[in-house]
Design goal:
Chains A, B, C, D: Keywords: Metal-binding. Chains A, B, C, D: Pfam families: YmdB. The structure is a homotetramer. Helices cover 24% and strands 22% of the residues of chain A. The first copy, chain A, is built from 6 helices and 11 strands. In chain A, the strands form 2 sheets. A 6-stranded mixed β-sheet of chain A has the order 4-5-6-7-9-8, with helices on one face. In chain A, helix 5 links the parallel strand 6 and strand 7. Bound molecules: fe (ii) ion (8 copies). The site of one fe (ii) ion has 6 residues of chain B, from loops.
């Protein structure tokens, strides 16, 4: 099977690009399954139910979140009703919502998607490694699951690489989100797991990681807030990673970056 | 002119790749100038004089450093004698060595290279923005300098993007180092400055950012050291970024990634 | 001479205690000079001009600030007019206001007060050690200055102790602020400088460092904001430190804690 | 009953003070139970078995640890045999040793001691609040336990205060360790739990939090290591906190600081 993961959708710019381009992308590159990280879709801060529905309607099978999961307070309630929206699995016990979902894609593939949050340079949270390990063990790749996709939302490159090594051979893809900058280290590890340190955002790169440059730059220079952070509104680059799996094992056969639109160098996931 | 920047050389694996491949790369792609970050060249920690000389002999015009600059104590003395080795410019006043060098390349181009260190998720250090601004002002692009290359050694993607916006139109390239993972966001900003959030390391990617995986993974899982960090010794990927400048202005016309050897997807900087 | 330093005034509770008790304290214990840290006086966030004036009217000769200096935006302008309000000296060049003031107290003593901000577990800022050293050198103790008081606003106990050692023999008092909890390590160092790691806040201790407990506790337990931080409104303990100096040298002869009112164990600075 | 808690024993200076003074202190102030934090007893780094035994022989009923628990590797094995040595309860599952012990004191009191580690400005670790809550629930105060003592090893004053509020009414004492500086905020909270943000170290205060000043000061000034950290060897101040409980409830009736020897202002825990 072939699946696509798209990184943090950033504000209106990112949402518009998802709405306009994702359906065509799914068709053109023949994706069987799509995961989109939506933690910044609503004004850069969290995800309203309306924006969640829009991302789903554009073709996402599962939407993941991150440290901004509940910036929009309504997410604390509607996440309980939704079976296609997940937040980091290692959030505190009792947190609304779930951290993993096992669903069937448009072509009948059964896919486990796990969202976890890192701890290096991130707010305190419980161990993501053990939490992900348990979720994978409950639904092993090549047995129950045709593919397992892990969105590891974290800052440090060491931590995402460690998660890749930790899960190598047990999941189809470990992909980082949160830094908003796509990395060029996509590869299939020795055990057959695809890894990419960060998918990059779906947002306007003429910015500081998706935010209009003025205020972030002011803060770096003076340390004193004078305005608010607002998402940049130019054309987004959709950033993500595409994986083709071995139907027998669910492991990755190939991994290719996707970067379409906006100001970044373009990359099309052409598998053949 | 056309120049190349290569990211953090990591241990023997990185040094060997530099020695074996850099001369051929310079010749094949016709680079007029080469900068290499050497902060991890000696066993992952700092840079001995012998390893510095080896990197220079392989074709580096300038070698830059980072937070590991003085892990090899001998660097505190030999850096004072060297005119082609720089450490972050915003280190404390009185730190041995210099943070910027203005030198002439093999084909007569006069190039200013600046090394600076970030502050987000990094050890405390003085303001890199003002320090770099002053160095650039003392030797403006298109006047004294044919090219200005800024190695901004930092962790956070927001800080490197901010430095790019800050210097846009005043330098040829702002490139990040330190995370050891190459990014795919290379582009020319509106004002003509090329930007890439991280050059990536020159090291073995079958590892956790260049270090043998066992001990870093152990620490993520248990929090308790049981061994030492040692550089991985498989074949390195040389990671970096190549820039072609407008001879009149010194600004970037094109920017292309370079990734040669080892386990990452290959990228050749073919400008035409 | 004899002077008093009071730590971070926290919200209405702290302001009320200052207004009601400080005049009597000054009289009873015969203080020649008073410094008050006001960074949290206005609803826990910064210092309005009205609240600054109230603290001054209650008897403060100099008011100091910290990382919250400009949370109340009006401080960016009125600080420029005030000669008795200072913010951390190591803020970025161009920051409104000054970081040190040399003033004359009610009984004719000439006092230099310096405010600086630490870097460990704090937002990035330039080197406080060199900035304070330069301010002290410009107005030496026992020559121009009858007393020098350093409010070092920082989190880590190691950093405040280091500042004490660094300045020992050159200033009358190094006192920490920012953690809001008074320490019991007040002492005169070998060189004659009094040191106390944190003065403690002037606020209601039936709280979490001055804030109503519910929301901070919620965040520790869930990681998810559900309300705002508001200052606790019970009776404040005024927390600070009193120093008696040798009139010839300006160095400390004795140092005593002050804790009056509220729920902490009381401590009166009775020098004889 | 009456119990004593002593903070981080720092190197030989701290060990000597424990050996020489603790037996007399127990006798003079009639302590029924003694807990000592030993995480820095062996050269500032961890706790050898010999040093653990020495602290026990001097009168400690239970020895606690912290982030330095396993700096001396032998602790990974001997902790498994010891029933009076605990490490933070929220360390990763599978970590050698236990995080809570329920033991009987010299006069027949049954005491539960819990060690936990904070997360703010500390290495990543699982939630200490839920871990402590579960340990308390398994052995409630006033039922199984005559006293419950919680050593919360953490940096941030907000986190230790939050733990106090969280456990108020359920334990006898919440005391912080790790900053090495005693605080002056000891008090009985409304629900009957005694709280003190940091017990302070048992070490030589003519130092930077127990370490010879030269190297820490050098690092603050230059950022570049030139030597090692070694414990200061002058006379230690024993720092801690004493609590008297209500025999019916196990809650605190009074709480008093103890500071004996060395260079800090002395405080004797005289309850009547
Ligand atoms: Fe995020
Ligand atoms: Fe994000
Ligand atoms: Fe590096
Ligand atoms: Fe580095
Ligand atoms: Fe404060
Ligand atoms: Fe503060
Ligand atoms: Fe300690
Ligand atoms: Fe500690």
């Amino acid at each position: 099977m072939r699946f696509l993961f798209l990184g943090d959708v950033m504000g209106r710019s990112g949402r518009d690009a998802i709405n306009e381009r994702l359906p065509g992308i799914i068709e053109r590159y023949k994706f069987d399954f799509v995961v989109v990280n939506g933690e910044n879709a609503s004004h850069g801060k969290g995800l309203t139910e309306a924006h969640f529905n829009a991302i789903r309607n554009a073709g996402a099978d599962i939407v993941t979140l991150g440290d901004h999961a509940f910036d929009q307070r309504e997410a604390l309630s509607y996440i309980e009703r939704e079976t296609t929206l997940i937040r980091p699995i290692n959030m505190a016990p009792g947190t609304p919502g779930r951290g993993a979902m096992f669903v069937e894609g448009r072509n009948g593939h059964r896919v486990l998607v796990i969202n976890a949050q890192g701890r290096v340079f991130m707010p305190p949270i419980d161990d993501p490694f053990r939490a992900v390990e348990a979720a994978v063990a409950a639904c092993p790749l090549g047995e129950q699951a045709d593919a397992i996709i892990v969105d590891f939302h974290t800052e440090a490159t060491s931590e995402i690489q460690a998660m890749g090594v930790f899960l190598d051979g047990k999941v189809s893809l470990v992909v980082g989100t949160h830094t908003h900058i796509p990395t060029a280290d996509h590869r299939v590890l020795r055990g057959g797991t695809a890894l990419m340190a960060d998918a990059g955002m779906c947002g306007d790169f003429e910015s500081i990681i998706g935010t209009e440059s003025d205020e972030p730059l002011n803060r770096f220079l003076t340390g004193i807030p004078i305005g608010r952070f607002t998402p940049a509104e130019g054309e987004a680059t959709l950033c993500g990673v595409a994986v083709e799996t071995d139907p027998r094992t669910g492991l990755a056969v190939r991994v290719l970056p996707l970067r379409i639109g906006g100001s970044l160098a373009q990359a099309e996931p052409i598998f053949d």
